[in-house]
Amino acid sequence: MKRLVLVRHGESIWNAEGRIQGQRCAGLSEIGHAQAELTANALADSYPDAALVASDLQRTMETAVPLSKALGREIVQDARLRERSFGSWEGQLRHEVVAGDGERWERFLTGEDEAVEELGGETASQLGDRVEPLFRDLLRGTTDGQVVIAVTHGGPVWHGAHRLLGLPIPTLGGVSNACVTEFIASAEDDRLVLDRWNEVAHLPRDLRTTWRPGGKDR
């Protein structure tokens, strides 16, 4: 069996402020750094020989660094693991967008792809088209018994999981900061099994934060 472990980055400063991040760079908050250390320790204990790949944005790289040290492995950066682009919404406080662009925000919440595309952003379909083949390639690039850990964002985890499992949106729940989602694949074919979803057992309750599509991060 082969394993693909998806890790969402720790809480960022913009998560804590309620800002829409997308593909803008923001570092981890104090809570986020603590989450990253605990996640690194847990994964290194479970999968000491895992390969490591990460989105090249600041918050994911800062999450991946403790894991890189714990595993003794270099981080392979891959821009395809980036969060969904939200165009001109990026950098704005969520409540400012709701107040100033409420009609488009409501369309976004109902899953209308054009709402974000009109802002120069990325549709949910485009995000899925970007991350699904990447996740499958990561699995194909491993051999039986190997594990690859990908440090990424809430959007790629959520949309990618729906795509990989062939599930209608929205079937799966939220994606917490520094959570672990794990897929198992047979060495003989591409069949995938979801082994863990949004697991945060390695974090104490006061360090658990949650992402929901279109909703708040905390």
Structural class category: alpha/beta
Count of individual domains: 1
- First-residue to last-residue Cα separation: 35 Å
Please report the first level of CATH classification, the CATH class: Alpha Beta
Biggest sheet details: 6 strands, mixed
What is the total tally of β strands?
8
CATH topology (level 3) name: Rossmann fold
The CATH superfamily turns out to be Phosphoglycerate mutase-like
Q: Which range does the strand content fall in?
A: 15-25%
Calculate Rg over CA atoms: 17 Å
Furnish the topology, listing elements before pairings.
Elements: E1 2-8, H1 13-17, H2 30-46, E2 51-54, H3 58-71, E3 76-77, H4 94-100, H5 102-109, H6 114-117, H7 124-140, E4 147-152, H8 154-165, E5 175-176, E6 180-185, E7 192-199, E8 210-211
Description of the structure:
The protein has 218 residues and is α/β, with parallel strands linked by helices. The protein has a single domain, classed as Rossmann fold. The chain has eight helices and eight strands. The strands form two sheets. Strands 3-2-4-1-6-7 form a six-stranded mixed β-sheet. A hairpin with a 6-residue loop joins strand 6 and strand 7. Helix 7 packs across helix 8. The chain is globular, with a radius of gyration of 17 Å. The model has no long low-confidence stretch (mean pLDDT 93).
